[in-house]
Design goal:
Elements: H1 5-12, H2 16-19, H3 23-40, H4 45-51, E1 83-98, E2 106-122, E3 128-135
Antiparallel strand pairs: 1-2, 2-3
């Protein structure tokens, strides 16, 4: 895979000022959402059993065989085939510090892909279902 100068600049240029949302705020919101889902029983086994099993989109070799595609215009934002609904996606990248006891701190790059999907889909049993999904 060839990288262009623009691809490299996207990863190396600080860009937090363009988003008006800090990584800390995004992570806090993710933790709070997870806590609410875990404590309210929204994802209980009874609910999951009724909802059916979604069919994933075809595997993407560029993402290591995961059933997910990039967050770019013209690409499939959902990870579910036969899905009709709303999809929210965010690519959060930057750098952080990694420290192992006894060694010097090291700057590392990270790149995360987070999505949620809510809507109706046709499951593997051929029936229509409604559901909410998250990919982190």
């Amino acid at each position: 895979m060839r990288s262009t100068h623009d691809d490299l600049a996207r990863f190396l240029t600080p860009h937090a000022d363009r988003h008006h949302l800090s990584r800390r705020t995004l992570l806090k919101a993710g933790v709070a959402t997870t806590a609410v889902i875990a404590t309210t029983g929204v994802m209980s086994t009874r609910t999951a059993a009724k909802s059916g099993t979604p069919s994933p989109v075809a595997a993407n070799a560029l993402f290591g065989g995961l059933h997910i595609y990039g967050v770019d215009p013209g690409m499939e934002p959902s990870a579910i085939t036969n899905f009709h609904g709303q999809v929210g996606a965010a690519v959060v990248d930057g750098n952080g510090t990694w420290k192992v006891d006894g060694t010097a701190p090291e700057t590392v790059l990270f790149d995360t892909d987070m999505r949620f999907m809510q809507g109706s889909f046709r499951s593997t049993d051929g029936r229509s279902h409604k559901g909410t999904f998250a990919f982190v």
